[in-house]
Specification:
By secondary structure, the protein is of the alpha+beta class. The chain has one domain: Peptide deformylase (Peptide Deformylase), CATH 3.90.45.10. Helix content is 26%, strand content 34%. The protein has 3 helices and 7 strands; from the N terminus they run αβββββββαα. Strands 1-2-3-6-7 form a 5-stranded antiparallel sheet. A two-stranded antiparallel sheet has the order 4-5. The longest helix has 14 residues. The model has no long low-confidence stretch (mean pLDDT 96). It is an enzyme of class 3 (hydrolase). This is Peptide deformylase. InterPro entries: Peptide_deformylase, Peptide_deformylase_sf. It comes from Luteimicrobium xylanilyticum.
Length: 162
């Protein structure tokens, strides 16, 4: 197990959709251990594999003292009439927080290291985390979801950081 370095913009791995995990081998097991160890740090709610440089569909979370992971996650349900608006940040875009609208509830299905089906769901912070990390695996960042005026402000702030 290892605490891994977080990739930040403009690293192209963050904009590349991740591949499905087709074979659960020692490499995937080590990836999950690294995801769990790396997310287990103060201020970290979630971590996608591409944020540590691995383009495979896996992420970990650390919400309300619960740490977990899911392989090949897909969002299968979002609340359609309940939303949350709040500042969102990202380990790969350090120091920047912007209001991001997300569904209040999210449900993700995937598999575990034994290949068994896993369902992860939640509201509020957990719902936001599931959406945020799944976006990462699709090559998206929360910045892509900002409304036009806020996104312009965010891009300016990001350029000033780089």
């Amino acid at each position: 197990m290892a605490m891994r370095e977080i990739r930040t913009l403009p690293d192209p791995v963050l904009r590349t959709p991740c591949a499905e995990i087709t074979d659960i081998d020692d490499g995937v097991r080590a990836l999950v251990e690294d995801l769990l160890e790396t997310v287990d740090d103060e201020g970290r709610a979630g971590l996608a594999a591409n944020q540590i440089g691995v383009s495979l569909r896996a992420f970990s979370w650390n919400i309300d003292d619960e740490i977990g992971y899911v392989l090949n996650p897909r969002i299968v349900e979002l609340s359609e009439d309940e939303y949350q608006d709040g500042d969102e940040g990202c380990l790969s875009v350090p120091g920047l927080w912007f209001p991001t609208r997300r569904a209040w509830y999210a449900r993700v299905e995937g598999i575990d290291l034994d290949g068994k089906k896993v369902v992860v769901e939640g509201t509020e912070l957990m719902g936001r985390c599931l959406q945020h990390e799944t976006d990462h695996l699709d090559g998206m960042l929360y910045l892509d979801r900002l409304d036009r005026a806020v996104r312009k402000k965010a891009m300016r702030a990001l350029r000033e950081q780089l």
